[in-house]
Amino acid sequence: MTSKTRILQKLFSPATLFLHWEWLLVLLLIVTAAINTTLSPYFLNMRNLVDMTFNFMEKSLIALPMTFIIISGNIDLSVASNLAMSTILMSTSFQAGLNIWLATLLGLAIGALGGLINGLFITKVKLPSLIVTLGTYALYRGVAFVILGDRAVTGFPSRFTYLGYGYVGPVTVPLVIFAILAILFGFSLHRTTFGRFIYAIGSNEETCRYTGIAVDRIKIILFTLSGLVSALAGIILTARIGSARPNIALGFELDVITAVLLGGVSIFGGEGTMHGVILALFLIGMTRYGMGLRNVPGQIQIIVIGSLLIVAILLPQLLRRLSLRVRI
Amino acid sequence: MKEPIRGSGYISFFWHIANIREVGISVFIIILIAVVSIRSPYFFRVENLRDILLDIAVLAIVATGQTMVILTRNIDLSVGSGLALSGMIVGMSVSSNWSISPLLALLMGMGLGIILGSFNGVVVTKGHVPPIIATLGTLSIYRGLVFAVSGGAWVDAAEMPESFKLLSRNTVLGIPNLVLFAASVIIISYYFLNHTRTGREIYAVGSNPGAARVAGIPVDRIVFLVYVLSGMLFGMGGVLWVSRYASAQSDSAMGFELQTVAAAVVGGVNIFGGSGTIAGVLLGSFLLGIITNALNLVRISPFWKLAMQGLVIILAVVFYTAISRRLQQTLIVRRVS
């Protein structure tokens, strides 16, 4: 009896229907690519596929540490604001005469510092990450506004803007940077003890503490990493669009979190894969690109992305319930 | 020997006071007011106080709905977009048909808000989608819909009948309507949360959903209800917003959701549900409003506003956590001794 139910359960479980969440994403990706190809015959052109990635590489970079953070059961709402703060500090110090590479280093350091402050509040004062990063979401963006007001910094040298829209062979520089970091992040999440600890913390933080895992240190590392990568994304974004304003990357955090959750990472922590997130990033990027081909305005595109997010969570639930009904 | 839980003397009195979170924020507000009024005597002028009240009225209305949602351990991130959407639809209706009475417009907005809120509620309770994700999704969807229905166009002051603009601008006995609306929402919500069965059930659901379910409280229905109420209030806020600023735009109230969460959190509402008061939310809204006002009066660049708000959120949370930890510590000490 029990074995029979178990077999049926396995047969009709969403996991079997789609093998894995990732396979569903691959399927969706193929469907989107097919639709895009019918929209424009040039879509599958190699050059076009590579250029398409320009638009979402910055968000993709931030999604890497965000995946770590959400798997560990936390959230970082301050990424886009931290990006703005570090970018504005970098740009203004460049404008003040600092060497562009030193300014870039300064920007990265500021980003890491912003992340470190989040981490310290979360671990030392023991505050929930949602609230701390909600506060720094306003604070960091506010610092950017205080420094630059409604002005903008432009006139970056071409050796710097190369970071944003240059090519290495046939591939764009941001894509190369993303690929390297994605491999690094994916490897450390799935193949190292550090990665296992992230899952463990997300599953049960208390148990981890009793087991002797340095929970606080790992959390601080995660948030610092998030700040650092946000600053890096800010540098690439500034290099690509050639100007820095305090309202740069406004609302990025929602897009990034959407991609991570669509990638199959559980908002409650402890579950998710890096390849799922990467697939989701390309799915969203490609969907947006396709809508762009049809001249769908960005404001309408967010309806699709928002629905995608809800459906992505609803679908497995509905399937599970359906499979239960079939069993009965 | 067990000591009685309620001790006597000034220490217990101190803890009793410290236990009331609203006292902390009130002290902070008083200090802030003192500093600002020394720098600028204009602060206490009637016109200025009126400006502050007008500025925070919509925030207080929407934050009240947000608070009810947070009390049940959920969150509604769609309030800013929902406000803009109901405001835009009502604004367009009013501009195309000037005979719509202001009161009808207000009811329309609330009705639209209820529909949007119900959608949130259904997705959360029936779809079992975590509230952050569900309302993050509707945040995008509703914002996109504002653009879809308006085609990116604005409704501006010239396209609205005077009576509609007066909905928020009229005064009764010298008090602006907008403030009266906010006051009635707050008074009714206070009564609802503290003196009705359903109101108490909202707290129960947030304190311990499992226990609430076992005690026979229809948890899903309560969660659905708070989303509907939040929707109704942001719908109302949307109409008042359009009436007050005499314009409806597709980017109205961008980021407003975080301000409402901030007002609640600064006002001592526990982000994990179960505790928080309407008085606290009102004080939280006041604090955010006074900061904005003070920056103007002391002639600090308005670009400081966001940074100050962020700082206040963090300070408030650190402060409340410190209080509640010490409180728990003393309770444990008492139990042990």
Number of domains of chain B: 1
The beta-strand count of chain B equals 2
- Average pLDDT for all residues of chain B: 85
Number of helices of chain A: 16
Q: Which terms would index this structure?
A:
heterodimer, A: 328 residues, mainly alpha, two-stranded antiparallel ribbon, 1% strand, B: 337 residues, ABC transporter involved in vitamin B12 uptake, BtuC, disordered N terminus
What does this structure look like?
The complex is a heterodimer of chains A (328) and B (337). Chain A is 77% helix and 1% strand. With 328 residues, chain A is an all-alpha fold. Chain A has a domain at 52-250. A two-stranded antiparallel ribbon of chain A has the order 1-2. The two termini of chain A are 13 Å apart. The model of chain A has no long low-confidence stretch (mean pLDDT 87). Chain B has 337 residues and is mainly α. Chain B has a single domain (42-316), classed as ABC transporter involved in vitamin B12 uptake, BtuC, CATH 1.10.3470. In chain B, a hairpin with a 2-residue loop joins strand 1 (171-172) and strand 2. Residues 1-7 of chain B have low confidence and may be disordered. The A-B interface holds A 75, 121, 125-128, 130-132, 134-143, 145-146, 149-150, 246, 254, 257-258, 261, 267-268, 297, 299-307, 309-310, 313-314, 317 and B 123, 127-130, 132-134, 136-141, 143-148, 152, 250, 258, 261-262, 265, 271-272, 301, 303-311, 313-314, 317-318, 321.
